[in-house]
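hey so i finally got around to running both of the ones u sent me last week. sorry it took forever, my laptop kept dying halfway thru and i had to restart like 3 times lol. anyway pasting them below in the order u listed, first the sequence line then the structure token line for each. didnt double check formatting much so if smth looks off just lmk and ill redo it

first one:
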Amino acid sequence: MYNELYMAWRREEGETSLGGLPSDFYVKIADYLKRIREENKLPDKKSVKVSLLDNEAENVGLMLEELLLARYKKLLKTISQKQAVPSELLTVEEAKMCECFVAFASSYQKFTNDLLQGKISPTFISQTISQTTPQIEAKTEVKVEIEVAHNRVALRFIKNIPAIMGADMKSYGPFIVEDVASLPAENAKVLVKQGLAVPVEVS
């Protein structure tokens, strides 16, 4: 699985067009990462095998983040340019997400065209009012979740790393030793755990 990920990463980073992935690629990657972590729970933390597994997990994580970011940017560009999404190149998960995004883009374009002509669908207005009025509590809950999800942590890097995709879908880096940067908490936790950076206390 490592070789498959490596080839997919090289192709996505080296070409401007979207590369093809097997429909179950991410399912296999998730299982692969799970197995690495399970094998890494060995009693002897200083063994050669554990060290190799640590390096493998670190490389897999970095390649996977860059692969996902590259594919996200290419898909977003394709959809924004109103081009057909190449479903034969997508995984099951990507195809499902693109369906939702294409539907949104299409609906918003129609809304824009109608509005520019001085028209707006009465059905759209009634649906918007009925959907937003009774759901004030739900919106409040979502706002809290978003604030928590976008907590940031200041890090000082102790190793050089390439650019990564943040949990907020923004690109960060690349970073070199002694660089200091603020990243989403989810990414910061992973980087610290992998021994690539240390938290910086902000007074």
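and the second one:
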Amino acid sequence: MTDLIKRNSVKTLGLLSAGLGLLSVSGCQTLPALRRNDSPASLKDAEDLAKWQEADNIIAAIKPTQFPAQDFAITAYGANPATGFDNTAAIKAAIAACAAAGGGRVVVPAGRFETGAIHLQSNVNLHLHDDAVLSFYTDAKHYLPYVMTRWEGVELMGYSPLIYAYQQENIAITGKGILEGNGSVTAWWPWKGDWERRNWEYDANVDQVKTRAPLFAMAEQGAPVTSRSFQENYLRPPFIQPYACKRVLIEGITIRNSPFWLINPVLSEDVIIRSVNCVSHGPNSDGCNPESSNRVLIENCLFDTGDDCIALKSGRNNDGRRLATPVQNVVIQDCIMRSGHGGVVMGSEISGGARNIFARRCRMSSPNLARGIRIKTNSVRGGLIENVYIRDIEIGEVRDAIVINFYYEEGDAGNFMPEVRNLHISNLTVQKAQRAFELRGFERAPISGVTLHHVHFKQVAAVGVLENIAGVDQLDLSLNGQPFSI
């Protein structure tokens, strides 16, 4: 294990083509050789593999959805694919009839159906035909009345998500059809405001800061959630949000052009997200963000997004600590990540903590993929992130490969120390990166408990940033074909 790497010990180091294995920086101590009583590599690998039985146990423990074999076509309740026809009422009627009959599939046939908010009920599977498109309106009036929701980790009474369920059980969205959110430079996305990468005309009258700032202030003051309601509201709704639900399946569909986060299970349990295509390049187009949820499986999905591909969250600041519910028992496997701010991410709204997180057999690559494995938090958010296991990951092209950043957004401006405990990364290969690492802990709360086994950076321009790290268990780590030690 290393001693504490002193503050500012390594700052954006360029790699040299020769002598990399001998790289030495003032204040940075390399790992000592294995002591005679240390476990051999084969035993360490066996111990790492044994941990993965826990991932299989999580998958086995997820309670699956089950639906009666009966269909309720939305066209039987008045739905019409004609342009300009509002199908909201017809879809609502089909869902109500399905639920009243004990459940089944509410079927969207081939065609493009325009609609407002859809609210699922228990035992209902919203099923899209292969050639079906649900096209959602962009006028906010279609997402009223307000519902109990969570926005960037803070609860409020806000716009209904495009597809929403509250305290429902045994629900699903399935099929190979398309959910079209119609987010664009003229609809939804401009509410992001004066964003550094905006490609729309800025309008201060619809800037989300007008609602975001007072909402966050109310949460810090402990205002009741029912009072967190705004007549002037510019907080874009998530696309799919099961809130406090049990047994949720989202499978096969393609989600495009979301106003905000694409899939956002909140305070839910037994969630399966399988074979979903998430394609949205707007601001905050996170692909899948499970928040404070338990027993979640994300597998065989494609993410091509404008923000994090998968981000595990558990509430922002005071509101996250109020609910004190971690995101836990999550398995991510066999997914493909293309564009995005991060591939597999924890944070930044992580005040409730994260534990028992597993990611395996994922492939990531894009000139527009900013980070591969990413943890982001700060001393205002805090949060304990523990028991994280990541293995068999292939990264083609990325900017920063491994990131643990305690200075995200507000930085060290609070009294809630973030902590990373038992983070194991093994069998990770990076073909091309600008930087291998961005590891930034606090001097008073350094990064610790990190294991890097069989991690290889094939072509890297720079080591990156290594700042305030207290212990990394390293085995078979290389950069540009040469052995390397933190």
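quick thing i noticed on the 2nd:
The CA atoms of residues 371 and 400 lie 5 Å apart.
anyway thats it, ttyl
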